[in-house]
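Sequence in, structure out. Go.
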Amino acid sequence: MIPYPQIDPVIFEIGPLGIRWYGLMYVLGFLAAWLLGRWRASRSPQSVLSPVEVDDLITYCIVGLLVGARMGYVLFYDFASFAQNPLEIFKLWHGGMSFHGGAIGVAAAFALFSRIKSKPLLGVTDFTVVLAPPGLFFGRLGNFINAELWGRPTDVPWAMVFPGMAAGNVPRHPSQLYEAALEGVVLFALLWWYSSRPRPRGSVTGFFLMGYGAFRFLVEFTRQPDAHLGFVAWDWLTMGQLLSAPMILLGLALVAISYVRRP
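Output:
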């Protein structure tokens, strides 16, 4: 068993204002996406965006991600609690962000950006999904520092006892780190490699949907289901898996269609 590193979720405080690691992880994720996006736009001959247009796109994505991720968590995971206390929706520093809701919000931002800028939608998504895994990496690190979304009880040598009564003082999978490695590092490497050569439009987006969906589906077998939801079907299927399965199917369909329609 490995000791859990006790890290204060608050980096420092200035009067009533506290700077938290969770918020910093979001800033680092957006910063990484912006820098990588400008670099790719200035060097890739197949880019549909200029470096200046990347600046605008990242702004659209920030708004879409934050609104979608929060609303997705409210609707998919804890609607009853937020219905009793609606103002809690605005307290992002308490955690509670859904990737699948964020994906819907970003998809809406892509559609709006493409329409306003007269850009091909799948060209924009193919360019941008490659920039997403670093943000996923930092986000999962934020979950780990917050000691939230921990894994199921286990006896593997790298198990950790997470603080708090809810974790039960038993060794658990550090599932946040599994997701950081798979969704952040491995998926980024695969997408960077796959998109480094010209591909049929829409295939990179499909590759991302398949990759994220598959990695998330697998990690959910080690992640503790949300206490207020439990298993949503057949005593083994979690909400995360239920939401990831359509991503895998949509990704497969996009890749197949893009190659069939390839000039």
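Check: The first strand starts at residue 10 and ends at 14. The CA atoms of residues 9 and 146 lie 6 Å apart.
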